[in-house]
Input
Amino acid sequence: MELLDRYLQAVKKHLPWQRQDDIIAELKANLEAQLEDKEAALGRPLTKAEAEEWLKQFGHPIQAAARYQPQRSLIGPALFPFYWYVLGIALFWATVIYAIVTVVLVATQTPGGVDALGFVLRLPGLWMTAAAWVTLIFAIIEYAAARCPGKFPMLAPPSTNWSPADLPPLQPEFAGGKKPRSFAGAVTEVIFGFLFLMWWLLIPKYPYLLIGPGVFYIDDWGHVAAPFHWAPVWHAVYWWVLALHVVRLGWQCLDLKFGRWQRPRTVQQIAMSALGLIPLGILLAAPGQMYFTLRHPEEDAARFGAALQSINLAIHWCAVVICVISVVTVVVGLGRMGLEAYRKRVAGMPPA
Amino acid sequence: MTLIENLFENLRLELRRGCLTLAVLAELHQEYYGYTLRKALADRGLEIDESTLYPLLRRLEAQGLLTSEWREEEKRNKRFYRLSGDGEQIFRQLLAEWQAINASVNTTVHNIQ
Output
């Protein structure tokens, strides 16, 4: 039957070359015997349509040939959970390290550095490279372990050589995943909050409380004229920080008064981090990124111009870094809240 | 195929996989070639696809549980299989395991019914 021979020829192409002839001869004998039985039962040869339908039952030639291959997987089920775990860690740290390197290159204005858009555009390539290396290493481990079982005990999946005694000690579970604050901790926070408030209120009158000896360059002392001057942007930043701190302190006092200090403060912390972006935004939006200016530009530009530029640049990048950390804190906080809510909804548990 | 039907099909295949190996080993106490083995199993109510049975015979032979030889029958060369010594030993162990599982499952199912 020509159709059967064509089918067997197609299957043969995908079989391992050492066993091709043997397998095809056996398959042919079996299928021909089956065909004979079928035709004997019908009392006539199969029509072309019937033969096609019959051969389709054996599956596509590639599928049919694959069943004669040993079960193959790049990373087997025993190793896969460890592969997945390591892959997650590798991708996370690759991203963190790349982000740090990018910030440093941008801050130092190193030639060849990338901007924010370049950072985002290069991330998929970075992830693929990290994933490829991790996959390659685990594929080699899988291959070595499968070919020579027992010969490389160090390559055996951790599932075979671990001890329950090595597990980390039991950690108590708390509502919201965090240890509840103690009363002493809550009181300490309020006390330090008031101390910070006092310190902050005194800064306009005694700026050395904030910038230490740097004040000699800002305020006139005796007959020595200071070269620098606070830029107007600090005024708005000062009042925003004061207002946010008063809100936070008030919140903490109310928690203490009504006995709510033990409750998780996830929403409060996210809200304060988000509001904290306002003074940072004002700082970053300062005209010309000038945080200090020269009192007498004509006279002092030659002597203090370079120092002033360095100070302004340093403050700007500090604000950028704090801003990035705040945004990450808000995003991570919101993400955790969302995940926690989703987890509880899936598990059918009541919200905390 | 709906999701439930698909799930049932996957679970059914998983359930049958181990049983088929045991049935093939049991049947090959007598010599068969692929097609006649399939017919013998079908006569006992155990339908098995050619695409599953023939590669399974190859795997069991590669694992040393079956022996095989080419022989001419009805003017056609056919590969005949039979249980090997190791195959017999494994078959006994699997049979004991199967009977224990079967008894436990029967008891459990009986209690539910």
